[in-house]
Amino acid sequence: MLNRSDYWQCAYVVPKGSFDNKKTAGIAAFREELAQLLQMEPDRAEELETWEQVKLLSVQVNRLETWWRSGLLCIGDAAHAMSPVGGVGVNLAVQDAVAAANLLADPLRRSVLADRHLQAVQRRRMWPTRATQRLQILIQDRVLLSALRKRSNVRAPLALRLISSIPVLRDIPGRIVGIGLRPEHANTVVVRSEATSPTRWERHLHTE
């Protein structure tokens, strides 16, 4: 639930393909389900008057087999659709961009960019993308779908209980979400005229 000041944006998760059944049951039945879940006054669900106020986001987890063509490179969502699980889609997109900048800046500067440079970006980023998607699917199948199929409280899997109870393990999910399975660091390059003396800031960047 996100407070947008003048309205609340709420995520309501349903099994894939079941939204039409919700619509068939009617908006009143949907409001009743929401009223049981809302952590606010139940009558707030009455503000949902039509299905036009409900937007369906169909989750996809997939990726291109080849991210590049001559003169073209796909990164981020253009190369791989991520599940909302973990909220890591934008993180991987930024990591893709940093990797692309590191690998392509020099060939572009020297006007020698070739297909092999584009291939190198995909080779570097394919493994973390594939591994992250597998983790998302694992969480989706073992936790989210299990919770959706049961009406009673769902107990978290043993692995998640261990992670939440052991401080050393507790940092692992944050690290995966925050910096990814293969962290990317921008390689700083300073370009200046030979006739111009470097500033202290430029010297610092060049040293880094």
Would you write up a description of this structure?
- With 208 residues, this protein is mainly alpha-helical.
- It folds into two domains: 2-53, no CATH class; 62-179, FAD/NAD(P)-binding domain, CATH 3.50.50.60.
- 50% of the residues lie in helices and 6% in strands.
- It has seven helices and six strands, in the order E-E-H-H-E-E-E-E-H-H-H-H-H.
- It has helices spanning 19-25, 27-37, 89-109, 115-149, 158-165, 167-179, 200-207, and strands spanning 2-3, 8-9, 62-63, 68-69, 72-73, 80-81.
- The strands form three sheets. Strands 1-2 form a two-stranded antiparallel ribbon. It has a two-stranded antiparallel sheet with strand order 3-6. The protein has a two-stranded antiparallel ribbon with strand order 4-5.
- A hairpin with a 4-residue loop joins strand 1 and strand 2.
- Helix 5 packs across helix 6 (167-179).
- The longest helix has 35 residues, at 115-149.
- The protein is elongated and about 65 Å long.
- 11% of the residues are buried.
- The model is unreliable at 201-208 (pLDDT under 50).
